[in-house]
Amino acid sequence: DVLAVKLLTPSTFLVVNILQLHYFHSGWMKLITMPSDKNIEGPASGTLKDIHAYAKENTEHVNSSHTQRILKSEPKTWQESSYKLYFRTNRLYKQITYYTWRFAELHAYKFVLFLMVLTSVLKVCAFNVTLIILATVGLVLLRLRKLINLLTLIATGLYILSSMCYQLAIAKQHIVEQNFFVRNCSQINLNLSSMPNDTAKWFGLELTPTLDRFIGLYILITIALTFDAIGRYRQRHRRLSLSVRFNVHLIENRFPILFEPFTLKNRMNDDTYEDEFDMINYREADKGICDFLKYAANFIFYRFGLEICYITTVIVIAIRLDIMAVLYSLWLGIFLISSRRSVQRMWLFYILFLIIAFPIQYMSVVGAPPLLCFNYPWTNLNFDGWPQLRRWFVLPDYFNPPVATQLIADFFQLLFACQQLRVFKYESSEKDSKFIETGGSNREIIYDDDIYKDNPTWDFVINKRHWLDQIKYAIFMYGEWIVVSI
After folding, report:
1. Which burial class, exposed, middle or buried, applies to 115 when counting CB atoms under 10 A from its CB (0-12, 13-18, 19+)?
2. Where do the TM regions start and end (predicted)?
3. pLDDT category, 319, cuts 50, 70, 90?
4. pTM score, two decimals?
5. 10 Å Cβ neighbour count for 445?
């Protein structure tokens, strides 16, 4: 009976794989095979707006009027009411699916990086320094997304395999029981007699009766990496399928756009290529609440990214309350008294400071390996308030290391700072002028000598067209008093 139970899981796995290969594999491969757009020639069979309409609802662009006619018609029988309800539900489901995949394409990678940092701070060990460094590099260099995912997958796979091998009886016999990684530092320095002496545990390997919980977070990272790869593959497959269907060349949008994300690559008469976008611009955002929400989803960080970074820094300062909080306060003070152009020049140095400080802080939490029997210079210091002062300076200690969970706030600070660096690159790059034209300029008009005589912006104080103008009027007229009262 015991043998049968142990063989049940691998036997079931084998049977499922055989069924998959014999009955479903060929059809599945045809379904997910990447289409090719190399042989596309001739005129397109639809505009970019038609492609977006089709992608959201999976209905032919020529039938868009038929869709609106169904939605606006009054049902006369219960069958028509049921069909209309089904039509609305199915249409909503397809739209939610469409935007969910696009959202995953944009932000699943950031979730993977956050999961790497969360795993590192919840389980402090030397191996996780690798994850912290990879997460830091991944935040700064988004174009290395595939490489970072691959290196993370290799690192977590090796750690999971090492942790499982460490539980084997042969490892217990030749490594654990022989104290292979244990060193008695009291023979070198009597002050180190009570320090941790197991280097394997410092690295992240230890015996545990619940291995699934011990490596659970690393398995979760592997699953997240898998879904990130699936999302990217699915979106690329979708773009190529639409390219073949509409006889166009769709490419990945280099801008972080959620609504109307497709980019059309058009060949010009002089054999050059020009990208065509269908993003809602800042002038269309005033038409109504729905258009404004679409514009906000596309450009909220472009418009208010600097303010979001400042707010995040204030939150980090309130959480940390140590030497790093003082350094963050200095940076924040410099930014607040500087113009946007000056902040743009200094931002790269701010990023360099963050990407150096973030891994060093985690290394301070991990500390030196016990195998070295290293004695910190401040170990023998003992006076009133020294434990609090050591914690304030974020100094490593064998018995009371710095709090690792504080680094979660630092991760979000670095994340938003890196996103703001991309915004500054958009503003200073000529090839990204389309993004600036659509989102609107962030140039500070307070320093202009000329005052707008003919303001192109709608006067929502005097003439209110819809609820969006009412909301803007309330914020404009009463927002200051709300801030003062808080």
Report:
1. buried
2. 111-141, 148-169, 214-231, 300-319, 325-343, 350-378
3. very high
4. 0.86
5. 9
